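ok so i was messing around last nite and threw this chain in just to see what happens. nothing serious, just curious
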Amino acid sequence: MDPTLTTVAAGFGGGAALVGWRARGREGRARTVAVALSLLPVSIGTWYLAMATGWALYAGDRVVHWGRFADGVLAIPLLVFVLSLLADADRTTTATGMALGGYSMAATLAATLTTGAAKLAWLGVAVGAFCALLWVLFGPLSRSARDSADAAPAFGRGRNVVVALFLLYPVIWVLGAPGFALAPALPLLPARVTLDAALKLGVPLLVLAWLPAADAD
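result:
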């Protein structure tokens, strides 16, 4: 087992316990938001443990830790689901955003596993899906939050923080071996762990701090 990744997994386990503790006592819609947020550190911690125990794919001479992408397929839709609840969005908008988020990450995995023209093609698909997701977040979801008297004021702040962190992931991907290895000497593992912690621990704790303990359905 990789001791560094095992330590990171244990840290996210502790973080999951902290988010769960902060989520206690919620009622109504706030309870659903809290449960969804609690799953984020559980998911990333599980996949770091999987990576620590050697779960990987091989693309030529490269080792691809696909667990990070599997986490993204779950985590991005969960975050969209939370933002949709905060915006009091309809089911169609919620489902569309969740599907686009998961599909964008799946296409990124395909881009990671391929080379040459196929890599660029899959990257284009991933970027297209991500841009469509941004349209959902700043278009229909934002309009729903403005139109609903019951929309939580945490939506706007939560959306902005989530999108800012989302935009950092492609930068790390391009710089590292999964992308185009533009900066292979940089310590990218600490950057990935820091970004994961900010998105999957920091965001849940912030949203729970902003969200009233009881929020009507």
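not much to say yet. The first helix runs from residue 3 to 22.
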